[in-house]
Each structure stands twice: as C-alpha cells, then as structure tokens.
C-alpha cells in the first residue's frame, strides 16, 4: 500500500512516516499544497492523509481538485481545528474520514486500516496467472502457497499489478517504492536487484515470467 502524507509540521510528518513505514506501508510525504499536487498528479496512491492547513494551497482545495479530476483515492483529513464547519466542508468535498488534532497514533492506524478495508471490500485480491496478491492482508500466494517477500518486493509487485497492461518506467517504480530516499545516481542498480529476486520467487522453473522488461524503459505485467 502506497500512502501519501501531506502536512506542514516537520516533526509530525517524520513521526507518521516512521510509524507507517514500520507498519509495512510505502510512504511518501509532502509539506505544502504545491508539492502535494505535484506528487498526486505524478504517482498513484492507495490512501492520502491530508492536513487542511497547508502553505500555498490548503487541504480543502487539494481535495476539491482531486475529486474534480475523478481521482477516487481514499482521503483521511487532518486538522488542528475543532470547527464542525471544517469537517462538514471536507466530507462534502469527498473526504472519506476526518481526524482532529491532536490524535493518537493507534487511532490513526485504525482509521487507515478501516479505509483500506473499505477500499478493497469487494475484492482485496489481485489475480495474475498463478499469483494472488492480497492488498489488505499484505501477502502473496502462488498456487495457494504463501511466498515470503520483502516489503520492497511486495511494493514492486503491488504497483506493477495495479498498473497491469501499462509499462512502468524504472524511475516511476523507484520513486513509488523508495520515495524521497531514492537517489538515481547511487541506487540505480537497486531496482534490478530487487526485480531479479522478486522474479525468482514468483516464477516456477520453465514458466514464462509474469514481469517483463520493456527495453530502455522499465517493466510491465500484461493484463
């Protein structure tokens, strides 16, 4: 699961990023409205944690643009304000849930799990050949046997499966999995190493690979 956290409080942003990463989520962050929209337009997220009070463009305007562009990613709104009007405005614009500051980390995690369950209520599983990826349960099965994947390998496979039928560039994949940690100069071989290990785990001897290489561009899983 790829989560974008948008908040202008550096300490809170770092704390939430650390906690969610420890919970096996892939986390990206933004500290102002402009940066948030750039990331939303250029990547795909499974859930967005969005503060209302932000520099340049506030959270309500960001939410309005998202829903206006027919992006239905679940949004959990955050705000230091206890004003009911803020909550009503956010929900009217299409927010899926609202959490007032200050909040407990346990409650935040519970709200996130609830939104993810709701998102994948109909079918949390993605099927491709003999592979089944359970987004809610954070596990992958091959021929009904659980495969032991690292967090990065799971994120790579999940992202490619969500983009089935489309070629994903190496840079886009790296940004999705490693986020702001990715350095294209020092970490360019990280993708190849993780892809190689992932392919070995999900491909049986003599079986055609599920993940194909698009020469000079990136990777693809066919529909």
Give the neighbour order of strands across the main sheet.
Answer: 2-1-3-4-5
CATH topology of the largest domain: Rossmann fold
- CATH homologous superfamily assignment of the largest domain: Response regulator
Number of domains: 2
Please state the second-level CATH architecture of the largest domain: 3-Layer(aba) Sandwich
What is the overall shape?
Answer: globular
Please report the distance between the alpha carbons of the first and last residues: 20 Å
Q: Which class do the helix and strand fractions yield? A: alpha/beta
**In percent terms, what proportion of residues is strand?**
15-25%
Mean pLDDT over the full residue set: 87
Counted by DSSP, the helix tally is 8
Total E-strand runs? 12
Q: What are the low-pLDDT stretches, counting only 5+ consecutive residues below 50?
A: none
Taking Cα atoms only, what radius of gyration do you get, to the nearest Å? Answer: 18 Å
Largest sheet: 5 strands, parallel
Could you explain how this protein is built, in words?
β8 and β9 (145-147) form a beta hairpin. The protein is built from 8 helices and 12 strands. With 223 residues, the protein is of the alpha/beta class. It folds into 2 domains: 2-119, Response regulator (Rossmann fold, 3-Layer(aba) Sandwich), CATH 3.40.50.2300; 125-221, Arc Repressor Mutant, subunit A (Orthogonal Bundle). 42% of the residues lie in helices and 22% in strands. The model has no long low-confidence stretch (mean pLDDT 87). It has helices at residues 10-22, 33-42, 59-68, 84-92, 105-119, 151-162, 170-178, 188-202, and strands spanning 2-6, 26-30, 47-51, 75-79, 97-100, 125-128, 131-134, 139-142, 145-147, 168-169, 211-214, 218-221. It is globular, with a radius of gyration of 18 Å. α6 crosses α7 and α6 (151-162) packs across α8 (188-202). A 5-stranded parallel sheet has the order 2-1-3-4-5, sandwiched between helices. A 4-stranded antiparallel sheet has the order 6-7-8-9, with helices on one face. The two termini are 20 Å apart.
